[in-house]
Structures are given as C-alpha cells and as structure tokens.
Amino acid sequence: MENTCPICGAEALEKRSTTETLEYKGRKITIPNYISYKCNECEESIVDEKTIKSSSKILNEFKKEVDGLLPIGEIKRIRNSLGFTQEQISTILGGGKKAFAKYESGRIIQSKAMDNLLRIIGEYPFVINIISKQSRVKKTKITNVIDLREYKAKKYKMKSTGYTVATRDREKGVSWN
Q1: Binning pLDDT at 50, 70 and 90, where does residue 22 land?
Q2: Which is it for the CA torsion 126, 131, 134, 139, positive or negative?
C-alpha cells in the first residue's frame, strides 16, 4: 500500500502489525499478524487487503464452530467419500455451480439447511441417489452409495409415523424382496 491516506489524502500512513481480537456471539478469537495502516494526520485506520482475505477465512471457520456448522475439512471429506467433484455436488445439492469451492476454501459459510443436508448424506450416503435423480449428474460409482430399494427396510431399522419410501414403493408395486 502506498503512503497516501485514502481518507484525507495526507502522505502519513504508518504500517502496523498487531494482534486483533474479534468477538462473535460472546466468544472471542485472536488473529495474529493483523496488518493495518494508521494515518498520522486524520487518525483513520485502513486494514491491509491480504489481511482481510486471510482473517475472513479464519473468522468464517470460527463462526462455523460457534454456530455448530461443519468445518471445511468435514465438508471435503463428505464430498470426497461420495466421489463427486465440487461442481457436481453443487449441481446436485444446489447453491450455485461454485458453492462447494467457496465452502471448501472458507470464503463463504454454508447455510444451516445446507449443513443439515451435508450431515444427512454424510451419515446416509444412499440419500444422494434420491436427490441426484432430480439433477443431470450421474450417480457416483463409489460402493458405499446405495439405492434405498436395493436393501430391505428392516436393515435400516427405520421407524415411521407417516408415509415412507417403502409405502410409496409398495403402492407402485416395487418389491423389497
């Protein structure tokens, strides 16, 4: 950054490297090497662009931890276990073509709804096949992803208080045996 203050125009910017403490929902995080420039004329502070980018990723992961959302590593693990690229999983689950690239780089935080969906497909991978029928992405070849109709309902020990996939399939004449 040059020495000219973008606020007052004075040639009086001084580079500072500090430790910045930020607060979110009552919890604090400390970010080291927080680079900013202080104008000795008007007293304004300007944060370095690289610092903004790097600290926003740190802050996003911190916010996800506070809010109970999946961290970057777990999102990547779930997607990789299903055998999809970032673009394929974005097409299937929604959120835009580049959504998963942004989730996995820490640039944006996934919504609570997307987080819940990721947890479900992480625990029950066969669900992705039900969802992917609505998109133009072919099913993955990973062996742990199964079609629900290939197994008996009792294997999953499902309890139901209403209309289930098994009920729908019986009505359509699909046999589970």
Answers
A1: very high
A2: negative
CATH 3.30.70.260 matches 13-67: no
Note if the pTM is more than 0.70.
no
> What confidence category does residue 161 fall into, taking pLDDT thresholds of 50, 70 and 90?
very low
Fold of 72-146: 434 Repressor (Amino-terminal Domain) (1.10.260)
Give the CA angle between residues 93, 107, 45 to the nearest 5°: 155
**What average pLDDT does range 76-88 have in this prediction?**
94
Q: Taking a C-beta distance cutoff of 8 angstroms, is the pair 29, 58 a contact?
A: yes
Q: Where are the domains of the chain?
A: 13-67, 72-146
Q: Is 90 exceeded by the pLDDT of residue 142?
A: no
66: tokens are 């506070």
Judge residue 22's burial from the number of C-beta atoms within 10 Å of its C-beta, 0-12 exposed, 13-18 middle, 19 or more buried: middle
Strands of the chain (E only): list them.
13-24, 27-39, 45-47
